[in-house]
Amino acid sequence: MVERYALSPMKELWSVQASLRRWLSVELAVMEAYEQLGLIPLGVSEKARKNAMIDLSLFESYERETDHEVIAFIKMATKNMQDEARYFHYGLTSSDVIDTALSLALVESSDILLEALSKLLKSLWVLANRHRYTVTIGRTHGVHAEPTSFGLKVLNWYAEMKRNQERLRIAREQVRVGKISGAVGNYANVPPEVEELALTKLGLKPTPISSQVVGRDHHAFFVMVLALTASGVERIATEVRHLQRTEVLEAQEPFKEGQKGSSAMPHKQNPILCERLCGLARIMRSFVSTSLENNNLWHERDISHSSAERYIFPDATQTLHYMLVKTNHLIENLTVYEDRMLKNLNLTRGLVYSEKVMLKLVEKGMSRSEAYDLVQSLALRCWKTQEDFKTLVAQNVPFLNEEELESIFDPTQFLKQVDRIFSRFEGE
Ligand SMILES: O=C(O)C[C@H](Nc1ncnc2c1ncn2[C@@H]1O[C@H](COP(=O)(O)O)[C@@H](O)[C@H]1O)C(=O)O
To answer: Rounded mean pLDDT of 369-380?
Structure first.
């Protein structure tokens, strides 16, 4: 993982030390299960727990020697053990330990991600409500469409992150599985009861069936959900980048005291945070294709996925954690220029009310196509001549009175259902 984007506590979760400790906790849970089922002598697991050793440099030297990380781990862990060492890793294959421990790490990282996501949801909700009635122009295809509320824009982000929260909870459940089923997954040397008991102790569930490994579809789903959440962050960041363009300048990401925008141009305040978030979302997506390829292992397993996963899991969870924490900072400190929003809304001198005019004409008895053609011809003339659309409508549609015109060209008309939309999310 690139240090620059590694934050606590996600960073510590993926250290080699932490991983060795998880492996040991799996081995000890299995020993306890054997013992509880009366399959090994009483007291053995307690002795093993007491005498187990974790020593990183010893592990590394054993790994150099054996070129097999789990054998290196067993040699290290049992170095100070006596007779109890006989029952350590008894009937297990390496992946019983590796995969079960990996699930522990993925569940823990899900909890960290869920916490960061819940903070982000709170800030999005606050921002959305602060701007519930802030009028802004809605853009489709990048072109001014109709007035809307800035709060609704933010509420859309909130709703997407809510869906991501739900998906992340499901993904956590998908990876909350372990396997203690032996070399080819058929329990030839370890009874299913040991698996059930050991996994329960660890807060995991057994997969109903496994090969030598837990099926990589579990992991691929998890990574896909992480990447989807990252793409939600990217959507927010892209919007802010657009809104911060000089010609638009309706919002701006935080620019702290002492910060510099450009080494050449002292006046610059660039949306570097949002640009970074967009770049990281691209990296997050790249993990998805590798995760899908990892699903295709030979027969009862091959180990081609292992090297790739050494990048994917630490990097995907840490990168998304960083993205969520930074997006929260962005949302909490976003500057919103309401005056500029209004100014931009009026850039087309009333054209954004064209649908309202057309609907009024239909209400007054015109056919839809007649009304459309009339309004379009006036609107296209405005684009060319820069005339004021309301004045042109008043001149060409004499049967609309002043009061009707005022109401058509009132941007707050577009906010009448805003509370109704917000109410769908209240009390969550
Ligand atoms: O219980 C077993 O070990 C069974 C064995 N399968 C293995 N299961 C788990 N790990 C194994 C296996 N084989 C190798 N290794 C060791 O995994 C490490 C792979 O390193 P890398 O490709 O860099 O991620 C690297 O340390 C490898 O030595 C089998 O023959 O089916």
So the answer is: 98
